[in-house]
Amino acid sequence: MAPGRAALPRPLRLLCQALIAGALIVIVIQTAYVLHTSSPYFNWEKPTHSPPNGRPQKPQRLPPSSKWNESESTPNCEMFPAAAFAEDGIQVTLKVGGAESRELLRSHIEGVTRCIPNLFVVSDMQQQIGPFITHDLLADVVHVLSEEDKAAYQRQREDYYYWNKRLEPSKAGWKLDRYKFLSMVEYAYAQNPNAKWYVFTETDTLVIWQNLVQLLDRYKWIDPVYLGSPTPGRQLGTWWEPQPTFFVYGGSGIVLSVTAIEHLLHEAGEESAEAESDHESQLLITKFQDMVREDCCGDSVLGWVAAQRDVEIKGLWPMFNPHPLHSTPLGKAYWCQPAISFHKSAPVDMVELWNWQQKRLKNGTDPRLILYSDVVDFFDFESLPVRQDWNNADMDAFDAPTPEAHDSFDSCKEACHNHADCFQFTHHRKKCRMARVIRLGNPVLPDGEDDLETERSLAGWDVVKIKAFKEAHDCKEVDWPEPSTERIF
């Protein structure tokens, strides 16, 4: 023993050694427990640890993975109104699926969606999509899924994570989508409760974001606002006195103010506080799980819950349009209205429209809102007035009234020019069809291979008439329609 240093009595020394050994055992046990529980049992996704406030971590946004790098191009975001999408502004959530089309996903990676600074991407599976990591909503609500849907969800995860199969769209996968609507609303609010507006879109939703920003400036986020294209939904009331409700069609985008979401969630929170068991889920979808399971569509259930909780829908069709961009009929009805969104649009249209918007804004030729009348300029019929293997006369169309109009494409073209109501036409198999509206239309395949000239469909546009119509209907003022559930798609 060193001089000047007092020795501890032997009993006290043994007690200290026992305490130290006990502390080391506790540390080892705690470490083993943390290592065992910090990742999911099947190790399908990275662990998510909750920060001190109890909220889940915000979605990660990483550099593009190698499988997306080959042909990926970064969009030009110079003219994008990023300031409006600050954390306390507009929060956008993109809903995708595990078996989503790669072309559609790429249209968001290479298009305007990538310009949104605070984007959330939610899905039925955790995946890396370009710079985004999707959040698996179904992992949060697996207790709500029917047995059949649980099996489909499990099968999808096994195929992707274990067997490296490329997932294909299926009816079983489509049925999983209905569980995402209530879940994504609550998830977006939990991730960012500071936003004033919450916008929910899908992979085939084309949104003109500059127009949406100006639309939301016309509404107050302190009101319970629920915007989009109205669709008839479930009945409230009794069977002898039913009260019809409407829901916002998810395909063309759903907009909710923060006040509307708080209306939806506040009652659910009170009900959860009164639940008999502390172990019951407090998520909104738990209360409506039976309805979600029996309904085909989650946006329908969201509309019914909104009606129950005094969140009134403000129908804004056709600004929120269920039509694809290439199939939207353009005419007097909403010529001077702003176009906000389109559904089921082709991936190439989504990217090209954004590039066209960028050039339009950069040139400074016309800084106003993009109206439906401007979509005609985007299509640029003058550069390509005739398309082969195409049909542009399958909406608001009629047969040419004179027999000679059906003889050939040229005779059909002349007949259209001479008919007051015809803007465009399609000639196919000695039949001339004329259309009263302006639209791009769709590609079609030849009927056979014997005589391609007669079996091919030729479409044309009367560019002289279309130009004259635009000049005669110059939109000096923007037509902002009032909300209505009588005006529906």
Automatic annotation (TrEMBL):
It is found in: Membrane. Pfam families: Fringe. It is an enzyme of class 2 (transferase). It comes from the Eukaryota. Residues 46-75 are annotated as: Disordered. The chain crosses the membrane at residues 12-35. GO terms for molecular function: glycoprotein-N-acetylgalactosamine 3-beta-galactosyltransferase activity; nucleotide binding. Its main location: membrane. One of its GO terms (cellular component) is membrane. It is a single-pass type II membrane protein. Its EC number is 2.4.1.122. InterPro entries: C1GALT1/C1GALT1_chp1, Fringe-like_glycosylTrfase. Keywords: Glycosyltransferase, Membrane, Nucleotide-binding, Signal-anchor, Transferase, Transmembrane, Transmembrane helix. Residues 182-268 form the Fringe-like glycosyltransferase domain. Residues 66-75 have a biased composition (Polar residues). The keyword Transferase applies. Pathway: Protein modification; protein glycosylation. Belongs to the glycosyltransferase 31 family. Beta3-Gal-T subfamily. This is N-acetylgalactosaminide beta-1,3-galactosyltransferase.
